[in-house]
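Sat 14:20. Reprocessing the chain from the morning session after the first attempt stalled halfway. Input below, unchanged.
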Amino acid sequence: MARRKVGFWPRLAVVLVKPVLTVWTRRTWRGMEHLGGDGGIIIVPNHISHADPLVAAHFIYDSGRWPQFLGKASVFKVPVIGWILHRCRQIPVERGSVEAVKSLDKLIAALHEGGAVVIYPEGTTTREPDLWPMKGKTGAARLALATGAPVIPVVMVGPERMFDPRTARFGLRPRTPVTVVAGPPVDLSRWAGTPPSRAVLEEMTDTIMLRLRDMVAEIRGGTPPPLWARPARTRTPGVTE
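Finished this time. C-alpha cells:
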C-alpha cells in the first residue's frame, strides 16, 4: 500500500528509525520509478547483511511505498515486539503444510490491497564468501504465480559495511556508503497460468536470482559465481575419460 495510508504506528517507526539511517548512511538510490503506483508488487532483494532490511525499508519508503516484510511467526508471538510488528503491517509466515497455506493467503491479501511485499528469495544472508547472490527458494515464485503481481528486483551493496555477517562486526561510522538499485519487473510471463509444479517454481526462481546476480555484477563489477554447485560426475568403474 502507499505509505500515506499506513497509519500512526508505522509513521512512528519512521520517525524513530529514519533519522538514524539518514546519519548512518550515505545513500545512492536508483530505479525508484519501478516501485511506483498503488498496485501490489513483490520486491525481491539480495540478502548480504542483517542490516540490509533497514536499508531496503528506507529505500522502499523513500519511493513512496510502505514495505511489508515477511517474518517468522514465532517473532510475532514475542511480547511487545510482536505487537509492534502487527501494528506496522508486517506479515507473519508459518511453516508446515496447513499453516503455510494460511500464510500464502495473507500474502495474497496484502498484494490485493496494494501492498509492497518484500521477500528475500535466498531465505537467509547469502553463504557465498564474497556475498554474491546464491540459489534461491521458491516462495516469491509461488506468490507471483498465484497473483500475477510484478516481481521487482532490488539489489544492494554497502549494508555489509554496517554489519558484516562473515565477521559479525558492526560498522558504526556515520555516512557509510550504500547503493540500492531497483530494476524493471522480472519477465515471468512464460509461466503465467502454469500449475505450480516444483520444476516450474525452480525455473522461475532461477530466473529471478540470475537477474539479481547480474544487477549486483553491474554495481560491483567482477565475475559472479554460479548460483549453485554442479553435482559431481559419477565415474563408472573401469571406464576412463
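The longest strand covers residues 151-157.
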